[in-house]
Input
Amino acid sequence: MNKNAAACIANSSVIFVLLLAPPAAAQLVNENLLAGLPPGYKIAFQDKKDDMLMNEMVPSNQTADNWTEMVTVQIFYGLKGTPQQFESKVENGWLASCPGASANAVANGIENGYPALVWLLNCPRNPKTGKPEITWFKAMQGNDSFYVVQKAFRFAPSKDQINQWMQYLKAVAVCDSRLLDRACPQARN
Output
């Protein structure tokens, strides 16, 4: 993939866009997840199935198998449910698989007309890796699909790192070219 071109993966009414510099001039159509490739990161893993798309991004010097930081983007095509239902399912699995794990709500509300929820799951020692795993999740309920973006650390992040990644998650959004009040940004040339 050319690093200087935008990556668009389309599936009928959903487009996942990695906003790379400089962006492509294509206009976004229908419902879209806007999630940028973080500076210094690369796409380490991609999987696309009939009902789901997943991308894992890691710092350029790391891999999908050997990472200390990761951003995961998931689109569940046609999935109907609330962010709270998704959070409950993920949280229950996390708490059951990691002794001493904890969960904390961060934000809950409507973003660009879509229900959204941000929460933190903390596993002090992941049984599979022997390392801590601290992950922030942002789940958004679209009209066409369900969207989840995660930022995971395998160490305790600093306050500056937390602030940086909270700003990243705040910028992640869903838009829809079919709805004026949820319009997608216009492409830049």
Remarks:
- The helical segments are 83-97, 159-171.
- The CA atoms of residues 75 and 147 lie 5 Å apart.
- The chain has one domain: 7-182.
